[in-house]
Amino acid sequence: MPGLIECVPNVSEGRRPDVVDRLVAAVRAVEGVRLLDRTSDADHNRSVITFAGPPDPVEAAAHALVDAAIRDIDLREHRGEHPRMGAVDVVPFVPLAGTTMEDCVALAHRFGRAVAERHGIPVYFYAKAATRPERVRLPDIRRPQFEGLQSLMGTTHVPDAGPARVHPTAGALVTGARPPLIAFNIELDTADVAVAKRIAKEIRESSGGLPAVQALGFALTDPPRAQVSMNLLDTSVTSLARVWREVETRAVGAGTRILRGELVGLMPLDAALAVTSDALRLEGLARDRIIEAHFID
């Protein structure tokens, strides 16, 4: 039986449900792929679509999603809080049962080169699939965004595949291979985005904060509030519970409080158990203490 790979494309559309429906339908139409989750955010104007299956169907589904997104998304008209430089902004491949990180690196390289050739889109490889050290971190690649990318294509942002020319409507695409991560947001009881930005800067690894944590501060609407948006790259290094405490301490220090957390996409079971263990002060809480886990292969 072939191994399994998870794919978690982030697309630059979160306000038009009909468009997201078409992207999801393109994935579902590929035999052998299972749709695991879809999450959209209107403020970020972004959706995360998660699916998994054997390598070949997953690759086919990723191509089907790109084809559909290019038809429906025009970055010249896109506005949202989240940084982006592509209609399909990032396509990570994650090894699951029976596959290795090396398998996902090879898949990301093959997929990225095919997208570049098929659509004339510049492609960048990141994380474990990066071909140079300055391309490991996604924020470093995405920093100029769609509007500023073309001016850097002859210097810091020469594509790994495809033309040194931004696609007029689809921008560029980043793809790579990585372990599972948790995309987690915390909304604050304040509309002052400066508070969220300050907290994000203090906790993210790149600014000397928590290891394996990426963070940005955003302003949300309806109702107005500030958000600390995070990627937790390795919860065995920095747990979700610790991140919550660090944000909460800083929020209280700024005269506000946490309103709620938001999970974007999916999270590993072991990370959820770690949060429960921390909250209840349980030592040694493992999968074998969970009834349903005894029915999971």
Describe this structure in words.
By secondary structure, the protein is an alpha+beta fold. It has two domains: 5-177, 2-Layer Sandwich (Formiminotransferase-cyclodeaminase, Chain B, domain 1), CATH 3.30.990; 182-289, Alpha-Beta Plaits, CATH 3.30.70. β9 (213-220) and β10 (225-232) form a beta hairpin. It is 32% helix and 23% strand.
At a glance:
With 297 residues, this protein is of the alpha+beta class.
Secondary-structure map:
Elements: E1 5-7, E2 10-11, H1 17-28, E3 34-41, E4 46-53, H2 55-72, E5 88-95, H3 101-119, E6 123-127, H4 138-142, H5 145-149, E7 173-177, E8 182-188, H6 193-203, E9 213-220, E10 225-232, H7 240-253, E11 258-264, H8 269-280
Name the descriptors.
4-stranded antiparallel beta sheet, 7-stranded mixed beta sheet, 297 residues, globular, Alpha-Beta Plaits, 8 helices, 32% helix, 2 domains, alpha+beta, Formiminotransferase-cyclodeaminase, Chain B, domain 1
Put simply, the count of helices is 8
Strand content is: 15-25%
CATH topology of the largest domain: Formiminotransferase-cyclodeaminase, Chain B, domain 1
How many domains comprise the coordinates? 2
CATH superfamily of the largest domain: Formiminotransferase, N-terminal subdomain
Radius of gyration, whole Å? 19 Å
Largest sheet: 7 strands, mixed
Strand tally: 11
Shape: globular
Q: Report, as a whole number of angstroms, the end-to-end distance.
A: 14 Å
* pLDDT averaged residue by residue: 96
CATH class call of the largest domain: Alpha Beta
Q: Give the name of the CATH architecture of the largest domain.
A: 2-Layer Sandwich
What is the ordering of alpha helices and beta strands? EEHEEHEHEHHEEHEEHEH
Q: Based on helices, strands and strand pairing, what is the structural class?
A: alpha+beta
Percent helix range: 25-40%
Low-confidence stretches: none
